[in-house]
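Colleagues,

For the teaching module next term, I've prepared a clean inverse folding example: a structure given as tokens, and then the sequence designed for it. I'd like students to try predicting residues themselves before seeing the answer, so please don't circulate the second half yet.
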């Protein structure tokens, strides 16, 4: 038996793998675009299948499927519609994933991806109706039936929106998990008073719990921003067909498609108030990408703080102890590195690079269409996939089990000459500078020096240099607050 079959399209005949559900147009794309060896993300496959499933149902309800004479037998329009819906349901459930073979770097707008989906679902529908892949005169046609009332130009932007929304809750839940883990550490570390640092130099005291509370709040704010950025993606332009006019689609198609997709996916979806804008502009996708970029830069900042605070242990800050998850060196025995923080930073650099591609591709549309949609889709789904995995690993393998080195934190604080800042209201800036310089030069504490110079009594010094009270704000030693 031959390992290929012959299929024909408007350009002529081509060999297609004998057992492939995809057909000639997909095979042309495979041959034309051997670029990266990557496949499209499951979010893209799921989204396209959802559109085909909904379209078959809507077009059937509108009475648009006609009976077909196939191989001497009549196949009713209802049977064709049901077969398409069943085949699409299988794809939605995760079957036939290996049949989606088009490289993400493909023909502009995503025609190859759309036809890959059309051909797989048509072939499977024909199988469900009792036809083999090599049979002639099969009743279900990828363009006439699976792609009915659709164009690549409205299905791909709709799939981008659905694919992001498909994993949005997963992303937000992972970020919520990180926020919760950081918030728990904020409570656990609240008793630890340490040196604050600005410009990487000693600054006035803070509590380690305050630092972690700020990390938790930053993630909380990013959750709010990402959720808001997802709102615009809920507007669907399906039904605009080729340019936004809705040519070849029933007047009720757009409204019914949005309602049907909402029911099938369980997502909150809305009709577009301008189908032309929904097809021309990628601003909603770019805006969402920007929200992920903003998250990425803050995660890098937090990861780098973890690396600084855990540096050493004998020659660095050593205020945090990160979980030891693997040996850190192939040559230095016993070395342990902050690998989860490093991983998170690398992943987020990648996400920021993805965002640049989405931004550039978003502005690359012309007139009624943006032909860069395949790479916008791929990069958006990759950003979400990488962020979900990286944040989950960082949370579970680093944040949850990290500990604080309270002794080292208090030791650094005791030597911090910037504690003199609390003396400003009592002795003034000039005398404070004198105390700080003397303490640093003689390796003495601020308390020792201010008492030696006679600027404060021991009791006054103890009261004003209460480091825990300093972290509560107010004016020290003047009745102005702060204890």
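(Answer key — instructors only)
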């Amino acid at each position: 038996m031959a390992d290929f079959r012959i299929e024909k399209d408007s350009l002529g005949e081509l060999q297609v793998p004998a057992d492939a559900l995809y057909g000639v147009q997909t095979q042309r794309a495979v041959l034309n675009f051997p670029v990266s060896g990557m496949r499209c993300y499951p979010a893209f496959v799921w989204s396209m299948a959802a559109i085909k499933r909904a379209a078959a149902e809507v077009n059937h309800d509108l009475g648009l499927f006609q009976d077909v004479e196939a191989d001497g037998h009549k196949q009713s329009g209802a049977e064709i519609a049901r077969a398409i819906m069943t085949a699409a349901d299988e794809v939605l459930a995760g079957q036939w994933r290996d049949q989606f073979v088009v490289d993400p770097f493909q023909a502009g707008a995503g025609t190859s991806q759309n036809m890959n989906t059309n051909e797989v679902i048509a072939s499977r529908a024909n199988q469900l109706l009792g036809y083999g892949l090599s049979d002639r005169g099969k009743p279900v046609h990828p363009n006439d039936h699976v792609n009915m009332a659709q164009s690549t130009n409205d299905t791909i932007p709709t799939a981008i929106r659905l694919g992001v929304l498909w994993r949005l809750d997963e992303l937000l839940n992972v970020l919520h998990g990180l926020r919760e883990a950081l918030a728990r550490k904020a409570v656990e570390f609240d008793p630890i008073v340490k040196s604050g640092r600005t410009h990487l130099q000693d600054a006035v005291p803070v509590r380690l719990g305050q630092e972690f509370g700020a990390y938790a709040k930053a993630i909380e704010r990013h959750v709010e921003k990402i959720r808001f950025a997802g709102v615009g993606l809920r507007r669907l332009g399906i039904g605009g067909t080729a340019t936004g006019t809705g040519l070849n689609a029933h007047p009720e198609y757009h409204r019914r498609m949005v309602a049907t997709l909402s029911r099938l996916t369980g997502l909150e979806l809305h009709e577009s108030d301008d189908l032309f804008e929904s097809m021309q502009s990628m601003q909603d996708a770019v805006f969402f990408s920007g929200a992920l970029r903003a998250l990425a830069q803050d995660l890098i900042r937090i990861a780098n703080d973890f690396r600084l605070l855990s540096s050493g242990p004998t020659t660095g800050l050593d205020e945090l102890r990160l979980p030891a998850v693997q040996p850190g060196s192939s040559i230095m025995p016993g070395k342990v590195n902050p690998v989860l923080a490093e991983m998170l930073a690398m992943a987020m650099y990648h996400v920021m690079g993805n965002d640049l591609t989405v931004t550039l591709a978003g502005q690359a549309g012309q007139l009624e269409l943006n032909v860069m949609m395949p790479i916008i889709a791929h990069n958006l789904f990759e950003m979400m996939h990488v962020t979900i995995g990286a944040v989950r690993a960082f949370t579970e393998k680093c944040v949850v089990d990290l500990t604080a080195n309270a002794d080292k934190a208090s030791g650094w604080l005791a030597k911090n000459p910037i504690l003199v800042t609390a003396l400003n209201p009592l002795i003034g800036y000039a005398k404070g500078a004198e105390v700080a310089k003397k303490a640093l030069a003689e390796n003495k504490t601020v308390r020792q020096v201010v008492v030696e110079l006679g600027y404060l009594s021991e009791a006054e010094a103890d009261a004003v240099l209460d480091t825990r009270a300093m972290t509560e704000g107010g004016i020290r030693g003047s009745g102005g607050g702060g204890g």
